[in-house]
Amino acid sequence: MKSLLLSRFLVLLPWTLLVIVMLDASGSNRAHRPSSIFSRRPLSQQHPLQDGAAARRRQQEAEALPIIYAITPTYSRPVQKAELTRLANTFRQVARLHWILVEDAAMGTELVGRFIGALSRSGHLSCTHLHVLTPRRFKRPGLPRGTEQRNAGLAWIRQKYQHAPPQQPGVLFFADDDNTYSLELFQEMRTTRKVSVWPVGLAGGRRYERPIVEKGKVVGWYSGWRGGRPFAIDMAGFAVSLQVILSNPKAVFRRHGSQAGMQESDFLRQITTMEELEPKANNCTKVLVWHTRTEKYI
Ligand SMILES: *[C@@H]1O[C@H](CO)[C@@H](O)[C@H](O)[C@H]1NC(C)=O
């Protein structure tokens, strides 16, 4: 009996030692990483100069990135603050993102004003708060939502760049507040040259909708709904470069002549062609954004 225990002990001993050695090695590795959040050294022992240089380098790198404008139409309802909080928690992790939040309201509401104020003060996310009221005659079920608000966001951007030198790098996209965005999506859209496209999860009554890509080009649409649209794509499924927005100053979301669900298609038709579209997300094989739609709770 005793010899059995001893042999078990001898079998386990080398493994135990191996684990201890590995733990120790990973600990000392961490200690050599300068100023990482994993660092075990007290703050006073870190090298302020080196950290300052690293921070400056990171900032320079971030400034070289094309800016991303996210235009979000929003309106007052019980889930609104939950939706905006989820979006803010994503956007604040994206470098060089400017959030344009446009309320469907005659005046900015206190809820959104305070929300944006706190975000701006936190210094983690730059935002602009706009508002425009949807005319009452357009507030009917079946009619598209967010039209006037998206156009207000476009107008704000065009105004901002009115006197800017040409060829400003930048990208904009329409970030409805009922979606969930993966951080990877922003890396993908950041390199948009004209108009880029990608799949959208939980859209059109399917697990996903997506552009069909052959040899790196968009040739059609996998869509659960009105497949005949020239661009059968959801609002969350594309981004446009600042150049395209500025060089097509008349391109807007139209109510007249565009039926519900045709707004994306009608807008894209004003600024691009199917041949020009740039497929992102691994030739449109990865889903990086979802129509989560918070359940109507009350
Ligand atoms: C997309 O497809 C094209 C053509 O098949 C290929 O050259 C390219 O590398 C693909 N891109 C990615 C990101 O897989």
- What share of residues are in beta strands? 15-25%
The dominant shape is: globular
Distance between the termini: 68 Å
- How helix-rich are the residues, as a percent range? 25-40%
Radius of gyration, in angstroms, nearest whole number: 25 Å
**Strand arrangement in the largest pleated sheet:** 3-2-1-4-10-6-11
List keywords for this structure.
298 residues; alpha/beta; Spore Coat Polysaccharide Biosynthesis Protein SpsA, Chain A; three-stranded antiparallel sheet; binds 2-acetamido-2-deoxy-beta-D-glucopyranose
What does this structure look like?
The protein has 298 residues and is of the alpha/beta class. It has a single domain, classed as Spore Coat Polysaccharide Biosynthesis Protein SpsA, Chain A (Alpha-Beta Complex). It is built from nine helices and twelve strands. It has helices at 2-32, 48-64, 80-91, 110-122, 147-160, 183-189, 242-247, 263-271, 281-284, and strands at residues 67-74, 97-103, 126-131, 170-174, 180-181, 195-197, 200-201, 208-214, 217-222, 238-241, 278-279, 289-290. It has a seven-stranded mixed beta sheet, with helices on both faces. Strands 7-8-9 form a three-stranded antiparallel beta sheet, with no helix packed on it. Helix 3 links the parallel strand 1 and strand 2. The longest helix has 31 residues, at 2-32. It is globular and about 90 Å long. It starts with a helix and ends in an 8-residue tail after the last strand. It binds 2-acetamido-2-deoxy-beta-D-glucopyranose (NAG). 2-acetamido-2-deoxy-beta-D-glucopyranose is lined by residues 215-216, 282-283. 2-acetamido-2-deoxy-beta-D-glucopyranose binds at residues 215-216, 282-283.
